Amino acid sequence: MPRPRLFVSLVLLAVLAALGTGVSDAGAASGPSAGPTTAATPDRARYDVTLRADADGGHWAGRQRVSFRNASPEPLREVYLRLWGNGEDACGTPGAPPSPVVVSHVVVSHVAGGTPGPLTVGCTALRITLSEPLARGARTSIAFDVSLTVPDRNARFGREGAYRFLGNALPVLAVHDAKGWHLDPYVALGESFYALASDFRVRLDHPSALKVPATGRTRSLPGGPGRTVTLSVSDRVRDFAWAAGPFRSATETTPGGVLVRSFWAAGTPDAGVRLTRTDAVASIDRFGGEFGRYPYGELDVVMTPEFGGGMEYPGLVLLGITEEGGAVVHEVAHQWWYGIVGNDEYSSPWLDESFAQYANARFQGWDTRGCWSDVYWPDDSATLTASMAYWSQHRGQYHLVYTAGPCALADLERTLGAATMARLLKQYARDHWYGVSTTEDFEEAAQSLTDVDLGPFWEAHRIR
C-alpha cells in the first residue's frame, strides 16, 4: 500500500492515536460465493516471463506468455490484460515518451488465434478477442513482447536514486466473475488490483552489480559477461514484483523455517534496518501460527530511506525506513490478507487493509479499547466497506480503513471472545486459502460461531 509520505504520516498518526499508541483457482478452496455459475475466470494461469535489464535496471524488455483455463460455464470470447504500470501516466501526452508498459506482437495459441484491441481504461486494459470461443475447461495461451520503463518517481513502480521498484509492472489477466469483467480504473491512493492465484516462472537477466529481490523462491546463475540471471519460481501467487539496485543484503531463517532475505539501500538508518529485520522474522512466524503456515518459503524485505510507507506483494514487501523502523508488520500481514486470502481490492479494500492492520495491532500489543475516540465519519452514508470509488472521492477519509477497520475487528473479538475470534480467522483463512473472499463471506463465517445475532453489530460498525 504505497502512499505519498505526507499521507502515510497522517495515516500513521491517526492509527497510533486511534489504537492507543504514540475465484477459485488451481486446487484452491472456494468460498461460499464461488460456484459453478459464478466461477471467476480465466483461472489456473501460468506466467512464463523472460526479461533483460539495461545497465541500471531502469528498462526491462523481453517476452511474456500466459496460459490459462476457462473456468466459467459460458464460452470465453475475450480476455483482458491489465497494464497496471500505466496507471499513473495513463496514455501520456502527445510528444511525450510512450507509456511505461508497452505490449506488442501479441500471439494467441488458440484455433485461429485472437486480435488485440486498443488500450482502454487509461491505457491499463488491453482487450484480446479470441477468434474462436474458449469452452469451459479448455486452455489457451497468449504470448507477447513486453517493454517496461521504470518511471521517474518514488513509487511502487518507480525509482529512488540508484534503486528500481517494479511493482505491478508485469501485465496480468483481468478477472471475469458473476459481476462481469473487472476493469476498474487505477487508483494511486490505494489498490485497484483483483487477481486470481497463479503460477509464475520468471527469468531476469541483469548486470551482476544489481541485486534483484523478487517474488518467489529465487536463485542466481551466471549470465553473459558481467551479468547474472535471477530465476524465480512462484506458485499460487496473485502478482509478481521485483526490485533492482546495489543493495546491501542479509539472510536468515525463522524458527518456523521461512527464509527471510533483507535488502537495504545506502543511507537507510541502521537502527531501522535492524528493527525491521527482527519484526519481519517474528511476524511471519506469528501470523503463520494465527492464520495458517506461510506457504511460499521465502520473503524478501526491501528497504530504502525515502520510499513512501510500504507496499505488499506476494513474497516481497517494499518499505520506507526511519530510525524507528517501518510498516513491516502490516505489510507482512498482507501476505495473508490479500495474498493468500484474496479479495477484490477495488471493491472491498477493508478486507485486506483493515485485516492487516488488525493483525498489526495484535502483534504490537496496542490497547484497542478506546480506539473509537478518534474515528470521525464524514457523513451518515459513509461505510467501512466502501469501495475505492468512494475513497477516491473522499481522500481525506481513507485512513478509516486503517483506524475504524481494526477497531471494528477488535470489537468483534470482544463480542465473540478472543478464543472464538482466533478460531474464526484461522478457519476463515483455511476456507478461502488461495481463493477470493467477500464481506458477506466473513459475516456468514462470524455468525456461524455465535448464537448472538450479529446484524446489529454489522450495522453499528458500518459493515454493510
Automatic annotation (TrEMBL):
Cofactor(s) recorded for this entry are: Zn(2+)
**Would the keyword Zinc turn up in this protein's UniProt record?**
yes
Residues forming the Peptidase M1 membrane alanine aminopeptidase domain are: 293-459
Question: Could you tell me the superkingdom of the organism this chain comes from?
Answer: Bacteria
Q: Pfam families attached here?
A: Peptidase_M1
- Per the UniProt entry, the signal peptide is 1-28
Q: How is the cofactor bound?
A: Binds 1 zinc ion per subunit.
Q: Which UniProt keywords apply?
A: Metal-binding, Signal, Zinc
Kindly list the positions annotated as binding Zn(2+). Answer: H330, H334, E353
This one is known as: Metallopeptidase
